[in-house]
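Record now logged for everyone:
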Amino acid sequence: MSEKNDGANRDATKRSARERLQAERERQKTRDKRRRTLIVASAVVGVLGLATVVGVIAANTGKDSSAKGGPVVAPSGATGKDALAIQTGRPEAKSTLTVWEDFRCPACKAFEDNYRDTVHELEAKGLLKVDYHLVTLIDGNMGGSGSLKGANAAACAQDAGKFSEYHDVLFQNQPQEVDDAYGKNARLLELAGKVNGLDTPEFRACVEGGTHNSWVGKSQEAFRAGKFRGTPTVLLNGKDIFSDQANQVTPQKLKEQVEAAGGVVKPSPSAGATSGSGGKNGAKASPSASRTGSGGSSGTASNRSAGGSSNGSSQN
């Protein structure tokens, strides 16, 4: 009887071991299946990601084609090589600021917001003229047509003698970079209502007909050929004012440089204003000019497609 019991126990032990082994094998199969599923899924995601990147690259290639159809019609008074610049200020001004801008570019707006008052002040004094070059960088990087249509509308405003005012309105009302609001003519015409005398039948026909689209496309080609780092690119008498990251030009420095080039002599502090001279309360003279503002655009705009834009802005 004892031997029978021992045999039964051994059989039970063997069955238990086989069952455990079988269960472990099943668990291992389940783990292997799960791992294979994850590997396949990861591979699919990788392929889709690559396809997305290729799609973006393909979408950006030739994105400016809509700007190239039809004859090149430069706006009234356009100047420079191939008449690709719109100039503001007095032609005889000693200093020239060359600005490459995109109306959808956030860094361009930052530049305008920081420097607008200083630029207009120097223009009014006859010390500075500005050559504006309008480009379509954000259309190429983000899709849409707001850069192109905004630039065309600004060129139409130049035909009406209202470029400077409308240029400022477009930047002051700039939508978010991903919002192609300026791709709608209705919005551009609505903003024209903020400029006295601009919203005319002639202006509307110019905007809606894309009169200067090909001219804008040619300006974009010149920007690409110039291999600029991005938008805004701002040159004072040919020198990039933002190229020296350690010592960028501020609005105050811009004013000082332009005034010096124009022969403006700063008045010296009066002797009576110095400390200890017996003036009322012995107050010290204030500096002739206080430093205001900051260095303008951030690096995001410069390198969106050239290695980084607001890419907002960057090279296409």
Remarks:
- Residues 2-60 form the longest helix (59 residues).
